[in-house]
Write a structure and sequence with these properties.
alpha+beta; Aminopeptidase; 8-stranded mixed β-sheet; 8 strands; binds coenzyme A
Length: 188
């Protein structure tokens, strides 16, 4: 699929869809990323100002144009409300790989929304973007995220010690990987 030149395609699941973020979604992004619980194991501290969410939005557009990061809004199909985001980051076309990122507003945890969203993202990456490998970079204490990746068939590949320093806290990372042939085998 040739990506539309001006936006990300909408990827649909049962209760949610992954859609192109628009300016009016900035308050929803702030709602999600200003929550300390959501940002607990994220690579940047919780937002304090709405302008930080605006800067994220502008960044998403800049990276889309550069083709090195695609970030969708996770929106409820019945209301259109953005309740999270799903990302393909560090897209490396030459090596056909990318890193997955994902977050939900705390009010939407434990309802299976990421169980629905992530297979759609992974399938798009492998079947539409022709990627060969996807990676996950997760704090070993982030059990919900680790469960989400392992449910998809990601394999734990190693521990990278003291890789992130967020808010002055030095954090390890566990690295996960998934290959296209593994994904196709799991879907067959
Ligand atoms: C990572 C994150 C998205 C996971 O959210 P989550 O709600 O645990 O995951 P899902 O949306 O996939 O929901 C799965 C859970 O919902 C439950 N559930 C409830 N209704 C469900 C349904 N209809 N279908 C499937 N699961 C359902 C499942 O039992 C499962 O719970 P379990 O993990 O205790 O087994 C969330 O914790 C988050 O946003 N964290 C902050 C950001 C972050 O750290 N992101 C990862 C960075 S690497």
């Amino acid at each position: 699929m040739k990506l539309p030149s001006d936006r990300l395609p909408t990827l649909t699941a049962e209760r949610i869809e992954l859609r192109w973020l628009v300016e009016s979604d900035v308050p929803a992004l702030f709602e999600i990323f200003s929550d300390a619980e959501v940002a607990r194991y994220w690579s940047s501290p919780a937002y304090q100002e709405l302008s930080q969410a605006q800067a994220l939005f502008d960044d998403i557009r800049k990276h889309f144009r550069a083709g090195d990061l695609y970030q969708w809004g996770v929106a409820l199909r019945d209301t259109g409300q953005v309740v999270g985001t799903c990302t393909l980051a560090s897209i490396d076309i030459e090596n056909r790989r990318a890193e997955v990122g994902f977050a939900l507003g705390r009010n939407y945890w434990k309802q299976g929304y990421m169980v629905e969203a992530l297979p759609v993202l992974v399938n798009f990456a492998f079947e539409e973007l022709d990627l060969h490998r996807l990676e996950g970079d997760v704090d070993p204490r982030n059990l919900a995220s680790i469960r989400a990746l392992e449910r998809l068939g990601f394999s734990r590949e190693g521990l990278l010690r003291e890789r992130w320093i967020v808010n002055g806290e030095i954090c390890d990372t566990v690295f996960y990987g998934l290959l296209r042939r593994e994904w196709r085998a799991s879907r067959a």
